[in-house]
TrEMBL record:
Name assigned to this protein: ketol-acid reductoisomerase (NADP(+))
Cellular localization per UniProt: Mitochondrion
Similarity-based family: Belongs to the ketol-acid reductoisomerase family.
Record InterPro entries: 6-PGluconate_DH-like_C_sf (IPR008927), 6PGD_dom2 (IPR013328), KARI (IPR013023), KARI_C (IPR000506), KARI_N (IPR013116), NAD(P)-bd_dom_sf (IPR036291)
GO CC list: mitochondrial matrix
Source taxonomy: Eukaryota, Fungi, Fungi incertae sedis, Mucoromycota, Mortierellomycotina
Enzyme class: oxidoreductase
Biological-process GO terms, alphabetical: isoleucine biosynthetic process; L-valine biosynthetic process
All residue ranges annotated as the KARI N-terminal Rossmann domain in the record: 57-245
Residues annotated as binding substrate: 316
Annotated keywords: Amino-acid biosynthesis, Branched-chain amino acid biosynthesis, Magnesium, Metal-binding, Mitochondrion, NADP, Oxidoreductase, Transit peptide
Binding site for Mg(2+) 1: 254, 258
Length: 397
């Protein structure tokens, strides 16, 4: 047994509870790193690949086809104006700067401005008020919050003159233009690169020499080069693989996913499972461990690495029987809620709600109340204590 498989087994036996005892015994090197031995079928033509995703062929662009010299050549006549220095603005601007492109930041004075100064952006040189950055930029990278994109649209629009490019990391503003008021002028390119993760990860993966996955889309191609420039820009801001999409598909899937399994549905499921365990007499630590800790520390990373099919094939026969019997029931009861959610995204209800709530004067205080309700829930308070007992958080005596 080599080092990798010893580590895999140690991880399984250390954090995995009962259901994984059989897995620990059964797992062999041949089974465990399936992802590593599984070959991806693709065909390549000049910078893009067509990859078979479970039977459907899709186009994917890869960072290695856009080396630094090509990026410098593509944007040699451009000034990239990144508006906003929130998670995305920061991550993308720093990556562009490290890629030696001509990048400036546009921000209002306040928290973001101060952070930018602290990270080496110099007022009057490469850090400006938003309008000045828009004036100087040839590619306007609108990474303000989605609500601010709508609020400041009439300020930004006059600077979007012929020949410039407007860039987003979310289809939100343009797709829901009836609600946001964001209608780009017809004589400019409009493109999108949406990293599949927070700006913090965009930056940290870049620093590790890796790239985050992202989506790329073109809304308007006036120059005839919008796609090529969008892909190059995607690589320049720090993505590794770029998947083709449209503005509409990007924003629908993103709003749906974060309200669903990524954040909304998962919190709902965690709480429901926890509450039943507590009502049936289980201690907070037991209820938390069986609901959240085992999921996030043991099973989800393994699902991420190998897939749910592998998980089902490699757990104890007892866990396997139960999961096989129950997943369809959860599917059947939750699918109507997912249908309702998708409809609420597609008909703009989610956008209107987000714009309305996020632009109220008491937005911060109301948000804090809602977040406090989650933080004060016994499950997440129990979680704090459980996390302190993780091996990495226990001080050696
Ligand atoms: N976060 C993600 O995971 C993620 C992933 C992919 C794409 N995106 C997209 O990337 C874009 C930026 O996201 P983000 O998470 O970085 O945004 P964010 O944290 O919500 O805000 C970004 C910036 O907007 C500025 N801002 C807010 N209201 C303003 C106003 N009224 N006037 C001027 N500036 C204002 C903030 O400045 P202050 O500090 O001064 O308030 C901050 O610099 C959005 O379109 C988002 O959907 C986000």
């Amino acid at each position: 047994m080599n080092f990798a498989s010893r580590i895999a087994l140690r991880q399984l036996t250390r954090v995995a509870p009962r259901s994984f005892s059989v897995l620990a015994r059964q797992t062999t090197l041949a089974q465990a790193p399936r992802a590593a031995v599984c070959k991806v079928a693709f065909t390549q033509t000049r910078g893009l690949k067509t990859i078979d995703f479970g039977g459907t062929k899709e186009v994917v662009y890869e960072r290695s086809d856009y080396p630094p010299a090509k990026l410098l050549e593509t944007f040699k006549n451009d000034t990239l104006a990144v508006l906003g220095y929130g998670p995305q603005g920061r991550g993308q601007a720093l990556n562009l700067r490290d890629n030696k492109l001509n990048v400036i930041v546009g921000s209002r004075k306040g928290a973001s401005w101060d952070k930018a100064v602290a990270e080496g952006w110099i007022p009057g040189k490469n850090l400006f008020e938003i309008t000045e950055a828009c004036d100087k930029g040839t590619i306007i990278m609108n990474l303000l919050s989605d609500a601010a994109q709508s609020k400041l649209w009439s300020t930004i629009k006059p600077y979007l003159t012929k020949g410039k490019t407007l860039y987003f990391s979310h289809g939100f503003s343009v797709v829901f233009s009836d609600d946001t008021g964001v209608v780009p002028p017809k004589d400019i390119d409009v493109i999108l690169v949406a990293p599949k993760g927070s700006g913090t990860t965009v930056r940290s993966l870049f620093l590790q020499g890796r790239g985050i996955n992202g989506s790329v889309a073109v809304y308007q191609d006036v120059s005839g080069k919008a796609k090529e420039r969008a892909v190059a820009l995607g690589v320049a801001v720090g993505t590794g693989y770029l998947y083709e999409t449209t503005f509409k598909q990007e924003v629908y899937s993103d709003l749906y996913g974060e309200r669903g399994v990524l954040m909304g549905a998962i919190q709902g499921l965690f709480v429901a499972q926890y509450e039943v365990l507590r009502a049936r007499g289980h201690t907070p630590s037991e209820a938390f461990n069986e609901t959240v800790e085992e999921a996030t520390q043991s099973l989800y990373p393994l699902i991420g690495a190998n897939g749910m099919d592998w998980m089902y094939a490699n757990c104890s026969t007892t866990a396997q029987r139960g999961a096989l019997d129950w997943w369809k029931k959860f599917h059947d009861v939750s699918k109507p809620v997912f249908e309702e959610l998708y409809e609420s995204v597609a008909n703009g209800t989610e956008t209107r709600r987000s714009l309305e709530k996020n632009s109220q004067p008491n937005y911060r205080s109301e948000l804090e109340k809602e977040l406090k309700e989650i933080a004060d829930h016994e499950m997440w308070r129990a979680g704090k204590a459980v996390r302190q007992l993780r091996p990495e958080n226990i001080q050696a005596n």
